Amino acid sequence: MSRNNKITLSVMVLLGIAIFAFSIRDIKLSVLIADFFSINFWWILVAFLCIGIYLFIEAVITKSLVSDRVEKFTFKDAIRVPLVEQLFNGITPFSSGGQPGQLFVMMQTGIDGGRASSVLLIKFVVYQAMIVVNFFISLVIGFHYVATKLQLLALFVLFGFLIHLGVIVGLLLIMYVPKFTKHISKLLFKPVKWFVKDEKYDSMLTTLLSKIDNLYEESVRIGRKPSLLLKVAGLTFIQLLFYYLIPYFIMLSLGYMNANVIMVTSLHVMIVMIISLFPIPGGSGGAEFSFESLFSSYITNNSKLVLAMILWRIITYYFGMFAGVVALVMKPDKVED
């Protein structure tokens, strides 16, 4: 990790502590401690198991895509990819550092940069597609609840959906009509010239067009292997399902045994979509506010609501970041590219 990344990680941890402290400002510490020790930690273990399975499945997906073209890519190196992704997603605005972080650890193993980029692009396309599918299902199930209770958050939900839908449409255009996409990209990219020097602009445009070509070539290759694509799509759908189930098991741990698993899962899908709109790394502040706002009707005890939010953030955000730090310092194996 660079010095700047270490500083950012430290800042995000301190920010998280500050947000947690602010959340419990009106709660008696004795009540919070009593609620903590009343938790059924077996359900918390299940919630941690969910995030573990989520990361494990992504490692399986990565290994499947890489091993299709590269020999001796070990599972140890495959599991490093999603863990490092969690770290850099967590310390960069809009999770923008996840892709470069994954590319870095894959290239550490000796995989060619272009090939690694192609694999990551396909993985990203499938992941975005499954997010849109899950989100559409959650809209059908839970949007009425959000629109009734919190109209402002409902607008964020719809805006987030449109952004992700736009991303997947753009990616599909690249995959199936690359010439048209490159033409549109050149037109949309022209305003960048107003802010950077000509050399920098030409370099950025060349990189963009190269990525479009890479994604198109990789999509053609994967298209010849529909069974591999279906496998990756199916695994990604299951991967996301485990992630979205985490708040449900947290609620069970706090004694809310009658929680509706479908509604709770749908609300979590919407929260994840809202978080993606906040520019602060990890959606800090917005994530906590969204969770408390959407789950306050289900967890009516304020102390338990805050406790649920803290547990959720530890499992879905901080656990992955610190696991990513460990993965980053692991020595990679070498492949035969």
UniProtKB/TrEMBL annotation:
Pfam families: LPG_synthase_TM (PF03706). GO terms for cellular component: plasma membrane. It is a multi-pass membrane protein. Keywords: Antibiotic resistance, Cell membrane, Lipid metabolism, Membrane, Transferase, Transmembrane, Transmembrane helix. The keyword Transmembrane applies. It is found in: Cell membrane. Its EC number is 2.3.2.3. It catalyses: L-lysyl-tRNA(Lys) + a 1,2-diacyl-sn-glycero-3-phospho-(1'-sn-glycerol) = a 1,2-diacyl-sn-glycero-3-phospho-1'-(3'-O-L-lysyl)-sn-glycerol + tRNA(Lys). One of its GO terms (molecular function) is phosphatidylglycerol lysyltransferase activity. NCBIfam families: flippase-like domain (TIGR00374). Belongs to the LPG synthase family. This is Phosphatidylglycerol lysyltransferase. The lineage of its organism: Bacteria, Bacillati, Bacillota, Bacilli, Lactobacillales.
